[in-house]
Design a protein that fits this description.
Layout (H helix, E strand, L loop, with lengths): L1 H11 L2 H13 L11 H11 L5 H5 L1 H12 L9 E3 L14 E5 L7 E3 L6 H13 L2 H5 L11 E5 L15 E7 L2 E9 L6 E5 L9 E2 L14 H12 L5 E8 L2 E8 L9 E2 L2 H9 L2
Antiparallel strand pairs: 1-4, 2-3, 2-4, 5-6, 5-9, 6-7, 8-11, 9-10
Length: 283
């Protein structure tokens, strides 16, 4: 009941106040926006003040894929099956199944379709709500305010049999600073019992947690680790910090997305010294 009230209050707040309150709610202290030092403080600063003109097209899921496909080849990206400017344009009978429909201007709002929906109207309404979602107001991530909301359709990778495993499709997220990979975040069991582990570029485990506990089982390095490291470094070059998300599908590297505001700067490191260490690397 309180959530709608908070949304109204949040949208009425100045961006700086909203960012400061969110930081306080998650980290127990106000961010130092004048002289940001920790990783999460620097994300807060970037959200408010870093208006790098290169960023919006790279966080737009549609244009980012176009750029990466042009730069590294069509094999580097998961195929785009269709794009739509509105939910009304979708012809569900013409979509290849299984597939995923996602908005280009937000993260974590995927609609998975194994087959044509029994209730097309309900799915269409849900997609319409996603298109109207104002991601930039929810977390004050400036770049998303520069994107025209659209819908992207891709193959449902796991369900289509391209890649499946005991722990689902594994997300490999490369934290890069000035084009240098410092840490590899590995997310597994995302839809069952989400775990998150970290490794250095030589695949030595790093002893910290971020939002989710570490996996309790051994995670082997991807077969294409060296290739992934090379892609991440090339994509991250020229940016003080960016996270490059990749997959390994049938032994080949596939582009996921690039993230300039991971966790909106609200995820808590354990121990907190790693928040400071990541912040030092972000020069």
């Amino acid at each position: 009941m309180l959530k709608p009230v908070w949304v109204v209050i949040r949208d009425a707040l100045p961006a700086k106040t909203h960012v400061a309150l969110d930081h306080f709610r998650n980290h127990g202290k106000l961010p130092n926006l004048q002289h940001p030092a920790t990783f999460n403080e620097k994300i807060a600063y970037r959200k408010l003040y870093d208006h790098d003109a290169r960023i919006p097209s790279l966080v737009d899921k549609i244009t980012a894929k176009e750029q990466m496909g042009s730069r590294f080849g069509a094999e580097f990206i998961i195929p785009t099956l269709a794009t739509f400017d509105s939910e009304a344009e979708i012809d569900f009978a013409a979509l290849p199944y299984p597939c995923v429909v996602k908005p280009n201007h937000a993260s974590g709002f995927n609609v998975f379709l194994r087959e044509g929906p029994a209730n097309e109207g309900e799915v269409r309404r849900r997609l319409g709500r996603l298109l109207r979602y104002r991601h930039e107001r929810a977390s004050e991530e400036w770049a998303y305010s520069q994107i025209a909301p659209r819908l992207l359709v891709e193959p449902w990778v796991v369900e289509s049999g391209i890649e499946s495993g005991e722990h689902g499709l594994i997300d490999y997220k490369f934290h890069t600073f000035g084009g240098r990979v410092f840490s590899i975040q590995v997310d597994v069991d995302r839809y069952t019992n989400h775990r998150r582990s970290f490794f250095d570029p030589s695949w030595t485990p790093m002893q910290f947690e971020l939002l989710y506990p570490r996996a309790v089982y051994e995670i082997p390095p991807p077969v294409a680790l060296k290739e992934m490291l090379r892609y991440a470094a090339q994509i991250g070059e020229g940016f003080a910090y960016v996270r490059v998300d990749l997959y390994e599908v049938a032994g080949k590297v596939k582009f996921g997305e690039v993230t300039f505001y991971p966790g909106a700067g609200l995820e808590v490191f354990n121990p907190p010294e790693f928040d400071a260490l990541f912040g030092v690397l972000w020069n």
